[in-house]
Write a structure and sequence with these properties.
Chain lengths: 313, 301
């Protein structure tokens, strides 16, 4: 899968736009062009070029951006912390509130608050991400003037990682983008948790737990909740992929200096090396997320851990 | 027609208030877009009708220079917002509809071929679909848009932007169609009527298009409805990000972007009205699609 993404990324890199034209400008002679083509390896057979591209990608060498002539890898590395902090915060927000609200709406079926949460979640799903962002800016930045509407605020430089977690303005700037990015995921997780919870609560062992005289809290959180975590984590993990896509939108709305903003500018100015490197990065992120999701089953599901239990199952 | 009014479908429709409200909203919005040039008081694309003095007129209030009143106010260039929204709706709906058609034709054909022929063709198509599926469609659309801009010579980029937009959104949404159609084709091709068609010596093309296709189309309708909402949102998102339609012909997304720029100076109406229109449209299509899915899926009835 990663190889396939790399192939597409390579094809974009190689065939869209002409690097020679871009590097040399109009005045170059034919001889100079030929020399550059040779130096860039453009005359090699296509599969050799592909392996060359892969080999360079493994060493994080994506060439230079057409705009600004900085190495693409350097650009991406400098922007990555911003995106990762944003994605992480919004994922934590989405999981905590999603699971909590899902459990709540499953336990209190038909209550006023449940109906309110469920119907507003439907609107939440239909609201495009950018609209959520703009509306939040309107409410909290323009009308109430509580939170900043763009940028990361003050960042603390830890040498290789510039973090916004350590300053007050950094944390404040994080709130609105994180909510914007996490809201859609939150509604999905909530709906999933709710339906799984309703399913689990009908089962015999829950009735047994109640018959043993356990409190509601113990039944819900120690007996029911662990059993719904697997589907929630699977879907939640797969959804992390769309977090990356929505991060592009959120970063644009809030002018958040992350890789998504870099990508959308690359699309706008047809900066091919940045686009193809970003594609590879996203493909890599997907593979990594899937791996983490698979590994997490191991920690959640005792049947996978304990060999005795595995035989019974 | 009478048969339709007595059908189960119509019975369920009459008894579902959500379906009726959302359907009426969709129809009203579509009609408003089609007849925009009769309903709209001004033509926002005609520079002659614009008066810059009218800029930033709040809704229903008189402009302080010209004294003119506008139902929903005006934007920065003095365009009547109500007319601009109607004309913007045209672009949004047109792009959405074309993108869905493209995705549908492509997805249905590829799904049909994959399901009916099987073998390596099936593997190649579905493998590709799987990989595309792991990427969110808006990201795919952006990539295609970026690549298309790279391929096209700069002179035509501007005029072609709507076509490029339709192609990018269409290509990013074909997978669900292909998957569903492939699934039902696998079931249909084992049935006796297909064997009979083979016996009388029809070509594979004839069997696929004339015999199997009509029998796998009903779930396609549901997917098309939901994809339509997705395509409209995708168009608005791309235009909002500045990579969609040019700002001389603003769609709803472009209007919302313009609105965001003026939010801080207090001109809230430029943002609010296009946003509400977009939300009403997307929400109604989603609700109607949900209802359609429940009705057409016999398992849930």
């Amino acid at each position: 899968m990663l190889l396939f993404v790399a192939l597409i990324s390579f094809l974009i890199f190689r065939f869209v736009g002409n690097p020679v034209e871009n590097l040399m400008g109009q005045e170059a002679t034919l001889a100079q062009r030929a020399a550059l083509e040779e130096a860039l390896g453009l005359n090699d057979p296509i599969h050799i070029q592909y392996f060359d591209f892969l080999w360079k990608a493994v060493r994080f060498d994506f060439g230079n951006s057409y705009r600004g002539a900085l190495p693409v890898a350097e650009l991406i590395v400098s922007r990555l912390p911003a995106t990762l902090e944003l994605a992480l915060t919004s994922a934590v927000f989405a999981v905590i509130f999603g699971v909590f609200m899902g459990v709540y709406t499953a336990i209190n079926r038909g209550s006023v608050i449940t109906n309110f949460i469920l119907s507003s979640s439907l609107i939440g799903v239909s609201l495009p991400t950018f609209l959520i962002g703009v509306l939040l800016i309107w409410l909290f930045s323009v009308e109430l003037n509580w939170l900043p509407s763009f940028g990361r605020g003050e960042v603390v430089d830890l040498g290789w990682w510039k973090t916004g977690f350590l300053s007050e303005s950094g944390l404040k700037s994080l709130v609105l983008p994180a909510i914007t990015l996490g809201l859609y995921q939150m509604t999905l997780i909530m709906r999933l948790t709710r339906s799984e919870m309703l399913e689990v609560l009908r089962q015999d062992y829950i009735r047994l737990a109640r018959a043993l005289g356990l409190t509601n809290k113990a039944v819900y959180f120690f007996h029911a909740l662990p059993n719904i975590l697997i589907p929630v984590i699977t879907i939640g993990g797969l959804q992390l992929g769309s977090v990356i896509a929505f991060a592009i939108i959120t970063e644009t709305v809030f002018q958040w200096p992350g890789v998504g903003l870099l990508f959308i500018n690359a699309v706008y100015f047809v900066d091919i090396p940045v686009m193809s490197a970003y594609l590879l990065l996203v493909g890599f992120a997907f593979v990594l997320i899937n791996l983490i999701v698979d590994l997490s089953y191991f920690f959640i599901d005792p049947r996978l851990r304990d060999s005795e239990l595995k035989d019974e199952a | 027609m009478e048969r339709f009014f007595r059908s189960d479908f119509f019975y369920h429709f009459r008894h579902a208030p959500v379906a009726i409200v959302s359907f009426v909203t969709i129809i009203l919005i579509i009609l408003a877009a089609i007849f925009a040039n009769f309903i709209a008081p001004t033509n926002p694309f005609d520079p002659a009708s614009l008066n810059l003095m009218n800029g930033f007129t709040p809704p229903l209030e008189a402009n302080e220079f010209t004294g003119e009143r506008f139902l929903l106010g005006t934007d920065d260039q003095g365009r009547d917002l109500f007319s601009t929204i109607l004309y913007g709706l045209r672009i949004s709906l047109f792009v959405g509809l074309m993108a869905v058609l493209l995705a549908m034709v492509m997805g249905v054909l590829l799904g049909l071929i994959a399901g009916f022929l099987g073998g390596w063709i099936d593997s190649v198509i579905m493998r590709f679909a799987d990989i595309q599926m792991t990427f969110p469609s808006i990201l795919v659309a952006m990539l295609i848009y970026g690549v298309a801009r790279g391929i096209l010579p700069p002179e035509v980029r501007y005029e072609m932007s709507i076509v490029v937009l339709i192609i990018s959104i269409g290509l990013s949404e074909w997978v669900p169609f292909a998957r569903t159609v492939r699934g039902s084709t696998l079931v249909e091709k084992e049935k006796e009527y297909v064997t009979a068609a083979k016996m009388i010596g029809l070509t594979r093309q004839q069997i696929m298009l004339r015999h199997i296709l009509p029998n796998v189309l009903s779930p396609v309708l549901v997917i098309a409805t939901i994809t339509f909402a997705l395509a409209i949102i995708a168009e608005a998102t791309l235009s909002f990000l500045g990579v969609g339609v040019p700002s001389t012909k603003p769609s709803l997304g472009t209007l919302i972007r313009i609105g965001q720029d003026f939010l801080f100076s207090g001109e809230w109406w430029i943002l609010l009205f296009p946003a509400v229109t977009l939300l009403a449209l997307a929400l109604s299509i989603n609700l109607f699609g949900d209802w359609l899915r429940d009705i057409l899926n016999p398992k849930l009835k």
